[in-house]
Amino acid sequence: EVQLVESGGGLIQPGRSLRLSCAASGFTFDDYAMHWVRQAPGKGLEWVSGISWSSGSIVYADSVKGRFTISRDNARNSLYLQMNSIRAEDMALYYCAKGHTYGGNGGYDAFDIWGQGTMVTVSS
Amino acid sequence: QSALAQPASVSGSPGQSITISCTGTSTDVTTYNYVSWYQHHPGKAPKLMIYDVSKRPSGISDRFSGSKSGNTASLTISGLQAEDEADYYCSSYTTRTHVLFGGGTKLTVL
Q1: What is the nearest CA distance from A68 to chain B, expressed in angstroms?
Q2: Which among A47, A112, A115 has the least Cβ separation from residue B99?
Q3: Is the backbone of residue A86 left (phi > 0), alpha (psi -120 to 50) or beta?
Q4: CA B85, B91, B93: angle at the middle one, nearest 5?
């Protein structure tokens, strides 16, 4: 079964750091770009970051550039998001998503597999 | 960059057809045939329904179709069913920020 399972969310104070993880199974992980997409409470979807299959190409939304770092470990079929200098506006449900295009570069793609999400709550 | 413009809500009766619009600009929808549509039932993972404007992933019903004209992409659902009630989001490639989502449309099946 093709599956993405996120973890690492929780309650975090503004200014602190948090690392999200996404475990992939059921497909050849290192053939596809991977992405993080978030949804703030009561709001729509917002793309956060994408990484190519080889980690050679990484892109970020302006809202997180310089604070968040995406990475992947193909040997472990895992995707990560290191969140530093967290702000109130980062509070959201964070989804891990697989890019549809074989060998995708981490930029625009259709997202054909999504996890259930992990919630990041920002509060002092 | 602002989100792509979608109507906040649409509704239809079972068996009817509805269309959800997604309006962009010259830096996204107008110029590029990279528009996707997602169905999102609250509490569940979003589901890809349409990609590259009008292509359906394997397993997606042909009741769902996509099109584009000028700066507006559209998702049409024919033969509306109760289980189609969900939030729908469009997304597009954009030259400025790579990926841009619409604000979302809540579909109510009456």
Answers
A1: 15
A2: A47
A3: beta
A4: 170
What are the chain B neighbours of A27 within 8 Å (beta carbons)?
none
Would you tell me which residues 58-87 of chain B have a C-beta closer than 8 angstroms to some C-beta of chain A?
Answer: none
pLDDT tens track for A19-45: 999 999 999 999 999 999 999 999 999
Q: What is the pLDDT of residues B19-30, one digit of tens each?
A: 999 999 988 999
DSSP label of A78:
E
Residues contacting residue A21 through CB under 8 Å, at least 6 positions apart: A6, A7, A8, A78, A79, A80
* pLDDT tens digits for range A75-110: 999 999 999 999 999 999 999 999 999 888 888 889
The partner residues of A46 in beta bridges, in order of sequence, read: A38
Residue given tokens 């980062």 in the structure block: A90
Q: Name the β-bridge partners of A10.
A: A120
Q: How does residue B1 score in pLDDT terms, banded at 50, 70 and 90? A: low
Which class for A28: exposed (0-12), middle (13-18), buried (19 or more C-beta within 10 A)?
exposed
Does residue B31 belong to the interface with chain A, where contact is any CB pair within 8 Å?
A: no
Q: How many residues are listed for chain A in this entry?
A: 124
Query: In degrees, to the nearest 5, what angle opens at C-alpha B103 toward C-alphas B99 and B106?
Result: 130
